[in-house]
Amino acid sequence: MTVLRVTDLEVGYAGGARAVRGVSVTVGAGEVLGIVGESGAGKTALALAVMGLLPGGATVAGSVRLHDEELVGRSDAELSRVRGKDLAMVFQEPALTPVHTVGDQIAETVRVHCGVTRAAARARAAELLDLVGIPGAARRARAYPHEFSGGMRQRVMIAMAIANEPSVILADEPTAALDVTVQARVLDVLRAAKEAVGAAIVLITHDLGVIAGFADRVMVMRGGKVVETGPVEQIYREPRAAYTAGLLRSIPRIGGADAPRPRPERPVVLRVDGLVRHHPVLKGTLVRRRAGTVRAVDGIGFDVREGETLALVGESGCGKTTALMEILRLSRPQEGRVVVLGQDTASLNAARRKALRRDVQVVFQDPAASLNPRMRVAGIVAEPLTTHGVPASLIKGRVGELLEQVGLKTEHARRYPHELSGGQRQRVGIARALALEPRILLLDEPVAALDGSAQAAVIALLEGLRERLGLTYLFVAHDLAVVHRIADRVAVMHMGRIVEIGPVGDLYRAPAHPYTRALLDAVPVPDPLLERGRRRVLLRGDTPDPMTPVRGCRFRSRCPRYPMLPAADGRLCEEQDPSPGRETDRLVACHHPLVTIGAE
Amino acid sequence: MAGFLVRRLVGRGVLVVLAGSLAYLLAAGVLDPRAEFEGRAPRPPEAVVEARLSALNLSDRVPLASRYRIWARGVLHGDFGRTQEGEPVNAELWRRLGVSLRLSVPGSVIGSVLGVLLGAYAAVRRGQGADRVITAGSYLLLAVPVFVLAALLQMAAATANDAMGVRVFAWVGESTPGEPGAFRGLVDQARHLVLPTATIALAQFALYCRYQRGLMLDVLHADFVRTARARGLRRRRALLRHGLRTALIPMITYFSYASGLLVLSGVFTEKIFGRHGLGEWLVDSITRGDVNAVAAIECAAACAVLPAGLVSDVLSGLLDPRLRAGAAA
Fold first, then answer.
1. Which of A52, A434, B245, B302 has an alpha carbon within 20 to 30 A of B273's alpha carbon?
2. Quick one: closest CA in A to B318, which residue?
3. Superfamily designation of domain B101-288
4. Is B274 helix (H, G, I), strand (E, B) or coil?
5. What superfamily does domain A2-250 belong to in CATH?
6. Hey, where are the domains in chain B?
7. In this complex, is the C-beta atom of A109 within 8 Å of any C-beta atom belonging to chain B?
8. Which residues pair with B262 in a beta bridge?
9. Do B227 and A96 touch (CB under 8 A)?
10. For the sheet containing A225-231, what is the strand order?
11. Are B8 and A76 a contacting pair at CB < 8 A?
């Protein structure tokens, strides 16, 4: 039975852009329809048009019928009786009103649609919070959104969406803003919520892995049009459109053949020993005093050899970016040592530090925010050169050379950042980092903000540059598939510590730390059969509050292995903080590793 | 939250003491009461002037430090000294404070409430007729100085009075002298308040309207407003309950401190409408060189900031749960 039928839908935005061009699609009762496509494909515009929530000035033509009732052209008052009742939506950003409690906002959703008493609505809110897996639901209903983590807020959004048992839930990139471990649990919650109320789900995402495990049917969109629609197995096994095939090819995958490569006998260019960065948390207004400490980086050590790529991975808040920034500072760390190209950063004076900066450059995550919007591309790329006193006569030629190196054309030099696509902007960021011919590049999530195909292209560029220029990368990322493709070695961070480090092939094939195992398990596999068939170990709870000091192993509260251990073995985890053993190529900080290290 | 408020209060108390002392030192150092006495006709003998000045603790032949000590000791006992005429400053201060508050409180409340509502409305109707009218009106009000506005209102009121043949509006002083009866007296006072209150309200309205419109535009397309609508709230309800509530928070600080300072900023309005409030007194005292009166008024203004800050903290805490958490931490 069809619950939602969209016919020849057209959406135009105020500037004349046509976001959706003649899309027709149906959703059956209780079905999960996945909509995939890169940004600009019109996925979000389609969802907003169905909801009647397009921004002012947008025009809609065509038909959207929910239970055979036309929604296009209805007034706000009429639509608001449908929205949240029979047709609900979960957005990418779990945006709740900051000034009302979570319970009140869920209760409001209930009360807007049916005339229940305040108390009944409140009880229903607690019930819903419990359903989406928020512990202590009745108490947490009185909390405000800022007291919830991103994953918990997204669960609250799901609770609101199912509050009135809708027949269709539109979910627009519901997990794109979340960590991979949290993503897996939020998707489970969405699945459970769907079962609980029997709703159909339209899941919009750019992540083909998420769709593979979740959707019954898939619709591929491009440029506002439908490329193809079909059952999920068919789309992944034998896509009819060349575009779909290309999309599937561009996904970085874990697995495949990787021959164990011996570590090259090259000089170490970056060595970090016992690096510590603690942030004091202050309170009080007149007299500030220290209320606690966030142990952002709490004693990490690794080395990177010339031409090698080391990836730092972990969930948000694990300290990977802080570690990168500490190295980039090139000054004395709070504790520990950072040795760059044989020079201890603690011993540098200002002149030598500036000289060393030429050799260590950085590329940031968000290309839109890290490029000055009022400077042209040529100016941005030339800036490091002028700062380091390169004569003006040489700069113009060098800028052209750099742009060519990163695959941009000379005509791009005159443009402003907003006139470029996301991938092109990140190329500008890379060109700027390369301007001074550095030997080490620190990359902070360089492809996290990019779409599938742009991501693949930028990774290929980074690989090529590494070969050609003999660069060394320190690569911070949370996407394990991307890391698998580009890195030689991987260091897994959890709460300011490195819990496991090793060559990428070994670590992915046989993770020794339960946390590494869980991270790898949480990555959805872009293959419907494999994804649905595999057994996963999910983590319990969120990352613990970084301010509370934990005795023993910091991972204990989330560890899937710890509750299963015999009491005597478990005591070791409670009493002793595991430290990675003596320095070898493969280390693990766990009392009871999943595989024995050093046997091979 | 109580502890947080007490700490803030103590901090501001220190500031008030500093501000009051500086105000006295500045007034005593710069103003010249001797010139005022010597300028009287017939000119009093030197010895008489000196004796008078010494009695009032105004003599510039006494070192500033010891004058300050005498003044500060008096203030600690709740005595701001005497005016040049020998009247106690305290009595005059309280009387005039009452006059100023009766004028400024209704004016600023009406002005800010109207400003917030119309500003928010203009933002919601951005670019449409209502927005243009409100925006043009508030710009016009901002561009017109207060005394011009007051004069225009008086002219309009006079025309209205003539047209109706009855004196509905009155604007000179606080009341008509010799109006009998308690009730009729009250009505008469209210009648006299209309124009000056309107003057203050309009000036305040223009500012609040501009600020609130800008703040509201920021939340108009906020994700949480869209979320509220996706849950089934109508646009108006989503904007009122979720948008306006959030957009009000930054206004609170401005509202509180602006109201605290309003005690003095009504000076033009008081002058024009012949209301003998604090602002008028401040200007007159400065021209006369009346050190004690000037210092007392400055102290009162500094003290007004104290409750204003308190109100700001309490209101912000009530409106914004994130601040409450920050205060508790």
1. B302
2. A99
3. MetI-like (1.10.3720.10)
4. coil
5. P-loop containing nucleotide triphosphate hydrolases (3.40.50.300)
6. 101-288
7. yes
8. none
9. yes
10. A87-90, A168-172, A200-205, A32-36, A217-222, A225-231
11. no
Q: How far apart are CA A369 and CA A398, in angstroms?
A: 24
- Residue A135 token pair: 């512990």
The DSSP output letter for B82 is B
d(CA B51, CA B58): 10
Residue by residue, pLDDT tens for chain B (329 residues) are 677 777 777 888 888 889 889 999 998 888 888 888 888 778 888 888 888 888 888 888 888 888 899 899 988 888 888 888 888 888 989 999 888 888 888 888 899 999 999 999 999 988 889 999 999 999 999 999 888 998 898 899 888 888 888 777 777 777 777 666 677 777 888 888 888 889 989 988 999 999 999 999 988 888 899 999 999 999 989 998 999 989 988 888 888 888 777 777 778 888 888 888 888 888 889 888 888 899 999 888 888 888 888 888 888 888 888 776 544 43
State the Cα angle at A456 between A452 and A460, rounded to 5°.
170
Q: Are B121 and B236 in contact (CB under 8 A)?
A: no
Domain positions in chain A are 2-250
> Does residue A55 sit at the B interface (CB-CB below 8 Å)?
yes
How is chain A split among helix, strand and coil, in percent rounded to 5? 40, 25, 40
Q: Which two tokens stand for residue A8?
A: 């020849």
Neighbour count for residue A562 (Cβ, 10 Å): 20
Residues A476, A480, A486, A490: what is their CA dihedral angle, to the nearest 10 degrees? 70
Tokens representing B275 are 């209301």
Q: How far is A100 from chain B (nearest CA, A)?
A: 8
Q: What is the DSSP letter of B88?
A: B
Q: What is the pTM of this model?
A: 0.77
Longest Cα separation, chain B: 85
Residue A99 contacts B, CB cutoff 8 Å: yes
Amino acid (1-letter code) at residue A394: L
Backbone phi and psi for residue A581, each to the nearest 5 degrees, phi listed first: -65, -160
- As a whole number of angstroms, the distance between CA A62 and CA B95 comes to 72
CA A280 and chain centroid, separation: 27
Contacting B residues, span 239-258, partner chain A, CB-CB under 8 Å: 241-242, 245-246, 249
Q: How far apart are CA B22 and CA B292, in angstroms?
A: 13
Under DSSP, the state recorded for B242 is I
Which of B233, B319, B329 shows the shortest C-beta gap to A283?
Answer: B329
Check if the interface score ipTM surpasses 0.90. no
